[in-house]
Amino acid sequence: MQFVPKTISENQPEIIPIKESPPPELVTFDVSGMKCAGCAKAVERQLMQHSGVISACVNLAVEVATVECQPGAVDAEALAKKLTDNGFPSVSRLGGNQQEAEAATVERRRQEIRQQINQLSIALILIILSGLGHILGTKAPILSNIWFHWGLATLALLLPGRPIIVDGCRSLWRNAPNMNTLVALGAVTAYTASNAALLFPRMGWECFFDEPVMLLGFILLGKTLEQQARRRAASALQALIALQPATARLVDFKLPILNLDSEELPPNSTSQLHNPQYIEIPADRVRVGEWLQVLPGEKIPVDGEVCEGKTTVDESMLTGESMPVLKQPGDTVAAGTINQSGAIVMRATRTGQETTVAQMVALVQAAQTRKAPIQNLADTVAGYFVYGVMTISALTFLFWYFAGTHIWPSVLLGHDMGHGASGMGHGVSGMVNQLPMTNYQLPIIHYQSSVLLSLKLAIAVLVVACPCALGLATPTAILVGSGIGAERGLLIRGGDVLERVHQLDTVVFDKTGTLTTGNLTLTDYLPIFQNSDWDLNSDINVGNSQDVASTIATIDSKLLQIAAAVERGACHPIAAAILLEAQQQGLPLLPAEDFYTEPGLGVSALVEGRRVFAGNAAWMSEHGVAVAAEFLESCKGKTAVFVASGGVLLGVIGLKDTLRPDAKAAVERLREMGLRVMMLTGDTEEAAAVAQQQLGLAAADVLAQVRPDGKARAIARLQAQGCKVAVVGDGINDAPALAQADVGIGLHCGTDVAVETAQIVLMRNALMDVVESIDLGRATFNKIRQNLFWAFVYNTLGIPVAAGILLPATGILLTPAAAGAFMAFSSVSVVTNSLLLRRNFRA
Description:
alpha+beta
């Protein structure tokens, strides 16, 4: 191929601006009226049909829908009205007070539970009266009268069963059938067939008015227990929201700074700090920079900094750490924590949705609406589940009526399904009507109608199937797991993260600030200044009264002054350590300007008109500064900062960092869990080797001298080898690696960028929380798998048994009442299994 050179015009080319698409808008709705996974799928389908909606995620357990839409393309109130009109009352969370919205949601759920308990009480009374009629028999003619049982069944449908039947019929009419549709069809069909047997006794059918009574009673009992369990599962989030104080005490920022511990104060005097002029305002109205008073026993209203006073603060609700933390002027305090021992005045630094507790609430709420990919199969099944069950029920009736009773005629003999409470097993009497209908005695028939048998089996299929178990399998486990994490200061961003946590086989730690404390200390200086244009004569006046040691100290100070002037423009633990040392020595900072930072290498600035570079050996090499081997050897095992100007090395500063107290224990525990532990650092190989030996890591598990832009590539190489990698970091330099990793774990004490990039946020400054977060993620995902396994197995086995698969060989079948009981308690078992997760994570 031949390349033909072209002359390029010297005219400036036209710049075509690239319009960056704005990020999608997130809208959240509180959605009620969902009864099962089919309802949740119907809500998702309705949301996705709206123009401008990109994606929708509905959580059945917390009754919340999250919609990702194009900015300005969706009217939240109109979308909520659409859902409400379609039978799912919805309220948008846009622009409302979070505490008030949550309080309204909690109150609504309490009312629903109270209503269910009232309905359940009526149903239980009807079940007791029905049972007494069978137990007492002829001893209580009124209770054993068939018309009395007709009345019980009628009341069951009109009182406790009415909401279920109405909702089931409406859902069927809207082409979105749900669990209530199945129950309503079963109960009404059983009631109708019993009425036919009662009005036309010559048909030879039996009356089973107890079936709708017991069916509705069991369903209501299961729903009530399920609601209570779901409420317990959501209690952690509600407690977190309740942490946010309602009011704040605004004080005058011109208050004099008082020393409360001063002995000069009269014993009976009242300090202005304890009794200032204040105004009480809503906590969400506080602005940044305002001064607030907090008395002992009160909650900190917003994030801020202590300006006056000294106290201890209980931060356990945010970090899980039970020991109170001492706070004094200059220390930070977080909203929702409790001031314990002393009155303080604080300055607000973050308010409203920017506070730590508000961010935690937002993270937990977001986590509870994000599904695990393993749930996709259940969601797909749930979308067609009720239609499938109704089809199987119809096929069951047709099979037994037209074929089954002819192939196995013995199934019509010797089976009493009329009034057995268990509804499962072998009958012996085969009598059609065991209850007298006033004084009219029905003839005893020792067989039952094939129509009636087919109908009962079809009803049993309708009510045994449980779409709730499928819908609750994932969200309840995530609800409990995220709640446990919030209580312990571990914020996991969703079900998809849990699934990736379960797959992890490698954990990579950043070194500085993560494995180490990040508080570097200066160990030594090595000033050189040979062939330098820096004028040291003004600083060194060697005379008869000045000894050599003093001269060396002056040169050391000059080196530190120059380095501090350059590092003043950087934000890094190394810069902080050098500036702190200069401050402690009382050295004035030299004027500097035109700062430039190259992440992972070093910084530069104009100091007294000269360009000065401070950084590692690679930074020196890039700017033509030769670093002798003996200088590198002198800083072996330390972090070396070389200072140069005008192509000449001015000196070397050695710094050292220490491991966190729990670093070695965390590494060993992760290894015991079967994970490979690695260390990633931009530091020298010698400095990394020191930490490697202290942690007991293999040389192959340490990646040193990796620049920030190379950290993500290093993680990508591990992933290309088939590794599932988690990265633990705390700084801006770690953000690319956190984003590249399968799971990013960020320390909350680190930078906001690292926290926002991470999928797991650790509120405490403790590496053992890495272990606990992975342990919690694994345990929660195992619960999800157990729940889904049970939900699929239950429906896979329950529906065939209800359809009579065991009837020809064993004579075992399910009555509608027993099938309803199994249906009710299958969803309860899923929620209960999720709650058992707390047993493994007790404080």
